[in-house]
User: What shape does this take?
Amino acid sequence: MKHQYNAHHAWEFDERPDEVEEPTVEAIADVEQLSQDILEEQLPQEPSLDSVQHYLQEIGRVSLLSASEEVELAERMERGKAAAQRLASAEDLSWQLRTALRADVIGGQEARRHLIQANLRLVVSIAKKYVGRGLALLDLVQEGNIGLMRAVEKFDYHKGNRFSTYATWWIRQAVTRAIAEQGRTIRLPVHMSESVGQVKRSAERLAQALERQPTAEEIATALGQPLDRIERVLEASRRPVSLETPVGEDGEHTLGDFLQDDELPTPADFASQQLLRRDLAEALEHLNERERRIIDLRYGLADGQRRTLEEVGRVLGMTRERARQIEAEALRRLRAPDVGQHLRDYLE
Assistant: This one.
């Protein structure tokens, strides 16, 4: 069934892809078993900066996929499924054919694992946007990984869509439902949890524009929704916790003793920074040495100091116009869909 956006449900993710069916019980069981296998290998247990860094290092070992590589993996998965069905239904197969079919089955399983692991960074880039809503970053990542694996099962490459575009809906759905079900002592309905997220994002945008906290009336106007509905959502989002709440078995410390140091990055901020550096470095590999050098100087990628075209020209011994031409060509390459698509999430 295709869900449409409406004011009562306020979906905070895109429209559900056409003709998507809920996975069967058997498919979910198989997917969750594969999830357990992969997460036991890679996902650390404690949500600290060290564990986040370790996880990012692990998932960063698998390169991002081009559109053609996604299709190739999907084709291998399709052959593997067909081979498995034939092996299960036919009894009079020659040993040569059985051997070939088993090879296709194994190839399909390997392709599925590769497609999942190459998109684990996509899960982190989505999950980090939901930190602060009741679940730790790595808990959100684990839920998002389940959504990713369901997307792998349902992906139809014949429709011509990029897998990352298709998988985003499944990942967001898994993350937001986990927040609704696990993120609060008093469980909120899924549609209310999603509305809380929508109102929170609107309030943050207004706060930046107004340089103060917006009123409920201003949020209602910005979203085009009734004031009483916004007030109900804001009331549902309140979760007061006393700073005097005891922490630990002995009760010697309180929650106030563990207030966050704002000068230190949160695990979500750290993950975002690490992912951006890694994805940017991969994108720059598509440029030649001179193009990389100009982009580096212009945008201060190495030292944080941005330079004018005149300054770039002086450093590299060329005219301002020549530096501008090379920069324009480099940016054109970086905007190509297969190169720059993974950088667009950081602009949201």
Summary: The chain is about 60% helix and 0% strand. Strands lie at 246-247, 253-254. The chain has a mean pLDDT of 75.
